[in-house]
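Hi R.,

As promised, here are both runs. First protein below:
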Amino acid sequence: IILMLFFDIILPLVLYYVLKNYMLEVWALTISGVPPFLVVIYGLITKRRIDILGALIIMGFIVTGIVASLKRDARIQLLRESAVTGTIGLVFLISLLPIKIGSSQIRPMSYYFARDMQTGGSFGSSSKKNKDVTNDINERWERLWNDNAVFRRGYRVLTALWGVGFVLEAPIRIIIIFKAPTVERAFFWTNIVTYSWLGVMI
């Protein structure tokens, strides 16, 4: 869990604050999205699974790359986070709908997020023993989902709260981006808003 949070959240922040002293802020913001991208690729290659937190953050990397190629404006780059958090909110809300993929019905996004946190996401050990533990955890969560109505209701409510929160967070971030006196302050305060909300929900 610590490694997952380090690569998905802490390292991108550190990279931005270091690199912005040596290059355009636009590219510092773009490069700061690389670690979560690598985490997702690592998980796909070594475990054939997608780290949920990394997958959500990777959307920011993709949007950043597109925007960076269109306009070299750091404030426009920061808007990519608002687009991403808004999109994440919609994904959370959509996951509450009774949608089936093949023979399986999708679960609320917070269910997958919490399960990944317990198994270590992409950084869970690949040893046979730990694979067995991960499989046991997945099977236990599946049983709880199928047999426990309170468990299902809890994750549906949590997913709804996250979804609404992320959707509402986007306009707040946009206001900060265009009202802050400097890009650095805008970057700092928009991240404070995001991670404060994550801290409250976690």
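And here is the second one, sequence first, then its structure tokens:
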Amino acid sequence: MTYLLNRWSGIGNVATDPQTGNMGDGSPWASFRIACDRPYDGDDGLDADFIPVVAKWDLAKQASRLIKKGRLIYVEGRISVRGSKDGIGPQIEIHAEFIRMLDEPPQGVSRLNKSQTRTENPRFEYAVSRDLSSEQGDSRTRRTGPIPANGGRPYRSPSYNV
């Protein structure tokens, strides 16, 4: 039996400020690059890969507000390979499903909404609270933590014959 996995995670500095836009259905997206160090045999022993990252839905809104060039972040997501625009090679990018800020936000950017409390280690994670009452029917239902890339919509896994 074969199980398939498409998972990527990395820590790096944001190399470009996010570019934002809307998809055909009006959903927001944000695109940026992160520089991830990798060792090599050379003078200083380090080089960097510049990896394109795309965030969608609610994650894109947070990314466009909080992510700035130079910030240290952790990204989890899946690798997406598409045909190239110039015909030279495939276009590879990470579709982010989770982003965690690993440094302090720039001055003037609030990490928390007014209704939130601080996390135990605010340098390691920003907290996002979203009232799910409109979706769940209960005004007491709350989720605290980074918003998943799918905007809180239920995940539908493919069915496999196991």
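A quick note on the second one: Confidence is low (pLDDT under 50) at residues 113-144, 155-162. Let me know what you think.

Best,
J.
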